[in-house]
Amino acid sequence: MTITTYAAAWFLPFVVPVCLYVMYTDLSRMKITNTANLTLAGIFVLIGLIALPFEEYLWRLAGLVIVLFVGIVLNAAGVMGAGDSKFIAAAAPFVAPADLAQLTFVFVAALLAAVVTHKLVKLTRLRALAPHWTSWEQGKKFPMGLALGPTLMIYLALGFLYGA
């Protein structure tokens, strides 16, 4: 992995609570809040100055803007939700560009696990633990925060364990 262990160690403890909150709000309300997305971006703005060389920090901030623009276009086309696209943009600067292949594998695994888990819980008595969650009644819509949050957490954890 290209992300440094140093950067992952700085980012991980601040990012985990936000990702857990995103998972919860998307499951319970089918909403990834602007507060969560702004908090995630703010963490990068502050901690990125410590964790990354300044030139790389600036390039990754530029990546946030580019990914946000692409997300807005995809949202306008009805491909993804606004909260999902904003979360992806806020998460983008945490990822070393050279790690996109690894990130893709992590995302696919997290998405498969999230879909299977959500469907299984929805069909079992476990659903009674949170009977009023909006995500249970959404038909084909899926709370992507359940996959996006773990993707960022797992990526950073792997970076901490196996980073440069």
Structure, described:
This protein has one domain (5-162). It contains six helices and no strands. The model has no long low-confidence stretch (mean pLDDT 95). Helices cover 71% and strands 0% of the residues. It is mostly helical.
Briefly, what is this?
It holds the Pfam family Peptidase_A24. The chain is 71% helix and 0% strand.
Number of domains: 1
* Shape designation: globular
The counted number of beta strands is 0
Radius of gyration: 16 Å
Main sheet: strands, sense, barrel: none
Q: So how many helices?
A: 6
Please render the helix and strand layout as text.
Layout: H1 5-29, H2 34-51, H3 54-76, H4 82-91, H5 100-122, H6 145-162
Helix pairs in contact: 1-2, 1-6, 2-4, 3-4, 5-6
Summary tags:
164 residues, mainly alpha
